[in-house]
Structure formats: C-alpha cells, structure tokens
Amino acid sequence: MAESMVKLEQVRKSFGSLEVLRGIDFDVTKGEVICVLGPSGSGKSTLLRCINLLEPPDSGRILLEGMEITAGQGKNKLGIDLVRRRIGMVFQQFNLFPHMSAIENVSLAQSKVLNRGQGEARTKAAGLLKRVGLADKLDEYPDRLSGGQQQRVAIARALAMDPHVMLFDEVTSALDPELIKEVLDVMRELADEGMTMIVVTHEMGFARDVGDRVVFMDGGVVVEEGPAKQVIDDAKEERTKRFLGLVLEH
Amino acid sequence: MDVILEQYFDLDIITDNFSIVLDGFWQTLLLSGIGGALALTWGLILALLRQLPGRPLAPVRAVAIAYIDVFRGIPMLLVLLLVSGSLGAFASEGTIPESIGIPRWLGKPDPFWYGIIALTITYGAYMAEVYRAGIEAVPHGQMEAARSLGMSHGKAMRFVIVPQAVRKVIPPLLNDFIALMKDTSLVSVIGFVEVVQVGRDVQSETFNSSALTLGAILFLVFTIPLARLVDYLIARQQRYTRAGGPPAEPAPAGAAGTGQTGGPV
Hints:
The complex is a heterodimer.
Chain A: E1 4-15, E2 18-29, E3 33-37, H1 44-51, E4 59-64, E5 67-68, H2 77-86, E6 87-90, H3 102-113, H4 118-131, H5 147-159, E7 165-169, H6 177-192, E8 196-200, H7 204-210, E9 213-218, E10 221-227, H8 228-233, H9 238-249
Helix pairs in contact in A: 3-4, 3-5, 4-5, 5-6
Chain B: H1 2-9, H2 11-50, H3 58-73, H4 76-93, H5 98-101, H6 110-137, H7 140-148, H8 153-183, H9 195-206, H10 210-243
C-alpha cells in the first residue's frame, strides 16, 4: 500500500446557502498526479483551496501525510502556516508580487518563513528559475514578463518552499494558447520527477498523458474517478461522458 | 489700488518683519514635519488594526473603527483644546507625571507638543482611511499567494500587502499632508507662536496685513510644489496602469492583473 499524501473524508463547504462541496472523499498517494476535471462551478477550485485551508472546510477531515490538518483550525494559526509550507499552490491569475523581481518573488518566503539566509535563498531561487527556463529573467519584474513566464515564476516560487504536494488551480486558463505549452512542460517535468500533484485543469491532453488518475466533479460531488486514460477515453458515467464530449469536441 | 497694495504688500513691513515671520514659519515646518511623520505612522497602525483577521480580534477592529469615525468627525481645533486643557489639568492633579502632562521635550514648549498630539490624533484618523483604501485596493489574490507560501497574516501584510498599498496611496497621503500643514496654524489658538500668529501680531501692531501675506506666500512655496508633485505621481500611476502588459510578447489576458484572483470559488 503506497503512502497516503492527501486524504479527504466527507469534506463539505458552503458559501452562504450554496453548498459548494457536498461530501468529498478523495485519496492521493505519494508521487501521484491527480487531475480534477469538471464544469465551472463544480467545486474544483474550492476543493483545492480547502486542502491548503485557504477555505477551511465546514465539516469532514483532511489529512496530510497521515496527520489531520482540519482539527483545531482557527485556534492554532501556526499549525495552518506549517501545513501551507508543505503544500505549494499555483493560481490561475499567477498572483506574483508585482513590487518584486522574479528572483525576489521566489526568495521572499524562503527567508521570511524558512529563515534561510539571503544568499542561500537567492541561490535556491536562481536554481529554480533556471529549472523553469527563466535563467535570463531573474531581475525582471512581473509586468515585464509574459503570462507564461509569470506562471513559471509562480511555480518556482511554490517549489522554493520544498512542498510535499503541489496544487495547480487552472494555471493555464488565463494564458494565450501559444503560452500554455511552456507551463504544461514545466508541470510535466515536475510530475516525471515524482512530485505529488493535484491539478485542476481543462487541458484534456495533459490530464490524459500526465495524470495518473482523473477525478470528475460536478455539483460539489465526485461523479467518477479512475485511471486517467480510462476515464477520458471511456467514461462510465453519463455526466462525465457529456462533459468530455463537449470539451473534446471543439 | 494703492490702498490695496499697501495693505497686503507693504515692502517696508515685509522687510522689517521678514526674519520673525521666517522664524514663525520654521515653527510651522517643525509642527508639520513631526506631526506629519507621527500621523503617517499612527494612521498605518490604525489601518492595520482595522484589518486584523478572525473573529477573536473583532473587538480590536471595532475600537479602531470607532476611533477613526470619532476623530474624523470632530474639528481638530476641538481636539487641540481638549488635549491642551486636559493634559495640563491631569498633570497638576498628579494623575499623570508632569513630564507627560506638560511636555517640554527637545526644548519645545508644551503648546507645541499639544499641537503635535492633536495633529497626530486627528490626521492619524484621516490617514488610516487612506491606507485602508490602499490595502483594500491590493487584489485579494496577493494575500492568498502569501498565505499559501506559509506566511502569517502579519508577515503577508508587512512584506506583500503594505508595500503595494503604500505605493498606491502616496498621492492622497500627500494631499492629507498639505491639509495637515495648513492646520498647524490652529496651534496659535493655544498660544504657540508660528507663522500665522507672528502675522497677526504684526497686523495688530501696524494695522497692516503684509506680514500675513508673507506667511501665505511661504505656505504656497511648499504647498504648490506638493500639489504639482501629487498630480505628477497620479499621472505616472495612470500611465503605468494603462501600459499594463509586457512589450516583448503579446499581452496575455491576465497580464495587466498580475495579482487578480478569479473570485471566491
């Protein structure tokens, strides 16, 4: 039995009277790449945001490497910050810090959260930016970078904290088509290196090729899950088929 | 016409009183500089208290909001009179030490420090609102990104949110500083001799307003360039915002909003 990295048990979350997550069960083992598919409004993003407690779930349990992280939330803020260090997150809108250069973006949390020295943090940042293909952009500010480049900086920034699992929230949705590939390539490499990844995406090709497993969500529940190729090529559930039909058609 | 010129621009009066008016204006500048620096600091503290997260800190937020509402809603002259009247009274009753009740720090008389305190109390409240607007103008995704990297709320504020917020609100803060500078003249009411009081003294001796005119000119020497600087900074910000995307490659949909988030879901 492979080691469990993230485990969700009956996670529920409402915004006002709208129940966005209606009892999600979910298990990710170490080194696995899970792609979460589903129509917009199905709760995919909320699911990711619950996992690193940006949105604390209303009920249910979330376990990170076997330890419950949902217990005592609110009272134990340090606990939340510790949890988030182990979980890297990349956002649809990049959310780079616009007042800092690329290398400063990647160094900041290293020095302020992990207390790494300035030199060590910058060396690590430079190495990561090189790894995502931006060795020549270290001192550029985000507004001088393309969307694809910004998103790669954001990936490097998350990796700088040595996360045990990475969450990707529709990271290519805000990109022009010709910039999508450079970001997906970085993610593919990361997957090849054995990073545990939960990827909310509309990129079916990526999900099929890189994903170990696919989870299809609709209306706040997991409708279907299984090996990536099997679900995408031969879904069992009617709702999954309908969604995939619409997405793959165009 | 000559009557008007003589009343406001009598060169003899201006020359005779030039140095005392200048001395008075130096006091005005000291009040503005020290009061401005303290108001900027106190305003930021108030704004940060107002933004503290979580339910347990709701009372702190409520107190900060109440403070800001109260001191934006009453005249600074009234605050000045409350401060100067009450602190001295407390000190003479022995409720508070005399060094605080009748402050004579740095060789300055107590009305000077009452003025500084009143300026800080009042303009701190104004500037807190300006900072708040700046903090709220930073896209929510910035806080989320910082928190997702494991930063505490405080660290995220200090290193990510506030540096961006302050840049956005430098022009309105400068506007408040101009207003603060002009309001230093109120301190003359409690017997502190700054530029307006010097002008009044000369006016009552000579029945001529030229010393006050000189005071006005000295104010304008500072306030007009400050106003132009505000305009310049706003224009520069707008240019920057409009320029937006990167020049090298086609601007992607999200480029202008480096920090925007897609919304809560």
